[in-house]
Design a protein that fits this description.
With 261 residues, the protein is an alpha/beta fold. It has helices at residues 2-31, 59-71, 85-91, 105-108, 150-156, 173-181, 192-201, 227-243, 245-254, and strands at residues 35-40, 43-44, 48-50, 56-57, 74-79, 96-97, 111-113, 118-127, 142-146, 166-170, 187-191, 206-208, 214-218, 221-223. The protein has two domains: 31-117 and 219-254, D-Maltodextrin-Binding Protein, domain 2 (3-Layer(aba) Sandwich), CATH 3.40.190.10; 120-216, Periplasmic binding protein-like II (D-Maltodextrin-Binding Protein, domain 2, 3-Layer(aba) Sandwich). 41% of the residues lie in helices and 23% in strands. The strands form three sheets. Strands 8, 9, 10, 11, 12 and 13 form a six-stranded mixed beta sheet that branches. A five-stranded mixed beta sheet has the order 5-1-6-14-7, sandwiched between helices. Strand 3 and strand 4 form a beta hairpin. The longest helix has 30 residues, at 2-31. 34% of the residues are buried.
Length: 261
Amino acid sequence: MKGKVIALLSFLLIGLVIAGCSNSESSEKDQDKDVLVIGIDDAFAPMGFRDENNEIVGFDIDMARAAAEIMGKEVKFQPIDWSTKENELMSGRIDLIWNGYTITEERKKKVLFTKPYLENAQVIVTLKDSDITELDDLKGKTVGLQAQSSALDALNANPIREEVGEITEFANNVLALNDLKTGRIDAVVIDEVVIDYYMTKEEDTYKVLDEALAPEQYGVGVKKGNEKLLEELQAALDQMNEDGTSAEISIKWFGVDKVLK
């Protein structure tokens, strides 16, 4: 019996060693891949979205391509369900979350972040002829926002949350804005950079309340354990700031250099 127990323990120990080696090799492969798979919400203009030719374009798309070129890697943009972004990253199906990804303390527990590269805020948008002019006017109203986004965090953190009549969550901001235009909801909590982009195309449709819910910053999310990839990416971003590449991309999409240095 004793011999059998020793044999069983030896078998288990060997299994653990093999598993450990396998995990280590997998981690190294993750950090040395030639192709970076980047998870995006492909309806998040102007950060990453599909144009009239169904091509994925945007500020973050151009930034990612430029960074990957410096790193000597190819890049693949993978549209994902934004509500499962951290799961996609931790599972290894994507290497980076890079599409207007807000840095929060809760997310820092799950992923590694680059230094912030862009400032943003969560704002309230309504139709231009709406009688909603300030946060208090949201009492009893139906408010829409993107599911599992920092918009929801910002609304929950504000006292007006207790006065809102109903919160409707959408898969993306485009669907939320469509429901706003058709009158199914009264207002939308949305990223300032996003609504600024849409207002350049439909300036007579929307208005943004003066009171913002929360300032925030965007960063790129990297899987925990991939410190080497994080360092390489940050070095590329730093180089882009120094040589003017990031400023050029920002001016292309925003008209001004908004990139944090």
